[in-house]
Each structure stands twice: as structure tokens, then as C-alpha cells.
């Protein structure tokens, strides 16, 4: 884990929250450390609870279950927070909210 930190902006229906994520840290762990309420389940890329969509910025994704995150979703920048590592500052929105026509 390096010294570099990225700023993550989490935009939900209720409010926008910004928090810092270390280089090499996953988006979910950093969110919980900063008391940002991204839903959490297995923490292993298998359940889809932490699904979100990246609307701006670059990231790397570790192995995620195809059941939790489909190919179609991946192409639309959906990802699983527990397996997402920022490469730049990010703007993210909740994945489940979007499917309800949220933001
Ligand atoms: S917490 Fe289960 S996929 Fe991220």
C-alpha cells in the first residue's frame, strides 16, 4: 500500500459523500473506514451487495463472480466495490439504485 490516495465521491439519492482511498486499497474497505455506507456482504466478489457504477475515473477490477456482475454490467462500468481498486479519483453511484431508475 503506497502513499498515494485517491478521492472517491459517492453520490447517492440522499447525499454526496467524499472519502479517501489508499492506492492498492479497495473502494469498499476505504468506504467503511470512512463511515460511508456502501452495502457490504461477502467482501469476496461473490454476492453483488456492494455493486456500484463508476461514472468518472479509472479503476482496476479483481476477480468478480459472473453471477454477481454480468458481462453486460461490466461493459457499462458497473463493478463490485470490494474488488475495485482506483487508479484515479472516482465518482461512483450505487449500482442497485440505478437499476431502479435512480440517478
Ligand atoms: S461484498 Fe459481496 S460482492 Fe462485494
What does this structure look like?
- With 103 residues, the chain is of the alpha+beta class.
- It has one domain (5-98): Ubiquitin-like (UB roll) (Roll).
- 17% of the residues lie in helices and 33% in strands.
- The chain is built from three helices and seven strands.
- The chain has a five-stranded mixed beta sheet with strand order 2-1-7-3-5. A two-stranded antiparallel ribbon has the order 4-6.
- Strand 1 (5-11) and strand 2 form a beta hairpin.
- The longest helix is centred in the first third of the chain and has 7 residues, at 27-33.
- The model is unreliable at 98-103 (pLDDT under 50).
- Residues 40-43, 45-50, 68, 80-82 line the site of FE2/S2 (inorganic) cluster.
Amino acid at each position: 500500500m503506497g502513499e498515494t490516495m485517491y478521492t472517491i465521491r459517492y453520490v447517492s439519492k440522499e447525499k454526496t459523500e467524499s472519502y479517501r482511498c489508499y492506492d492498492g486499497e479497495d473502494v469498499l474497505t476505504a468506504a467503511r473506514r470512512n463511515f460511508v455506507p456502501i452495502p457490504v456482504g461477502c467482501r469476496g466478489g461473490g454476492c453483488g451487495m456492494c455493486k456500484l457504477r463508476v461514472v468518472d475515473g479509472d479503476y482496476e477490477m479483481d476477480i468478480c463472480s459472473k453471477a454477481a456482475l454480468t458481462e453486460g454490467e461490466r461493459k457499462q462500468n458497473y463493478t463490485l466495490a470490494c474488488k475495485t481498486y482506483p487508479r484515479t479519483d472516482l465518482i461512483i453511484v450505487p449500482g442497485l439504485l440505478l437499476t431502479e431508475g435512480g440517478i
